[in-house]
């Protein structure tokens, strides 16, 4: 029903590179191709190589270098009059902005990418851009609009039998279901995403699906089983050099440990996750890890006033327009502590 997963962001002479290739290998090949394309003087080939460079840097957590690379790809594509390549570069830039917690910029770049992709007939870039917008809206807390886009994307992906798009859409809808408290639906969607990803050879999508399944299992009280799924996903992340996915996996491990009331280990795990997020300049993940750390320390007997002070400081650092959902989670933790104190 679904085809094998492939990586359309690897283009030109990089087209045959596996979607599951280790990112260090992708970066080396992309930099070599960039050098060759520059010597050849072919604008489209150079833009394509720089796109692969940008995506490798982004997924490795080297965000400043990723920023320079996607912008270089866009400028090269624009000079060559290649609208499709311009769309891909903007997609990369929008995805990077979301990773950095810059949600307004992410929606803006991804919307430009969507429009250029539509104008140029780049259907895959169009789908990737719309998927990026949906994910950004979901993370920002705009759930209704995000759900509409994810439902649309899922229908289109199923019709075309696209493995990665189907997995992304299912995972997005599963996360929305989980946030709404519908654990049964969330489990079904995450489990289907994992099955399709595994059958299609999409290990990156599989790692994210396993993380989602572990979240639902731990919410049901199946903590040991959840940790086993996270360990399996972690192996994938480490093999592929997925810095951001690995950090989120680590943060979820902290969540599972916290729910199991293993607060000391949870605190150590959240601290590790926070450092991982800070090393790749990912503010949303760092904030979520810090929130988990503070809640764990509170359970371990840290003086409540100190924890409340740090939670308020964390809340105030979060832009309510950019990271609305994350800020709301911190505010809920503050309210819960105030109620307990009362």
Automatic annotation (TrEMBL):
Gene3D superfamilies: Tetratricopeptide repeat domain. The keyword tRNA-binding does not apply. InterPro entries: Bac_ResReg_Asp_Phosphatase, TPR-like_helical_dom_sf. It comes from the Bacteria. It is found in: Cytoplasm. SUPFAM superfamilies: TPR-like. Keywords: Cytoplasm, Repeat, TPR repeat. One of its GO terms (cellular component) is cytoplasm. Belongs to the Rap family. PANTHER family: TETRATRICOPEPTIDE REPEAT PROTEIN 29. This is Tetratricopeptide repeat protein.
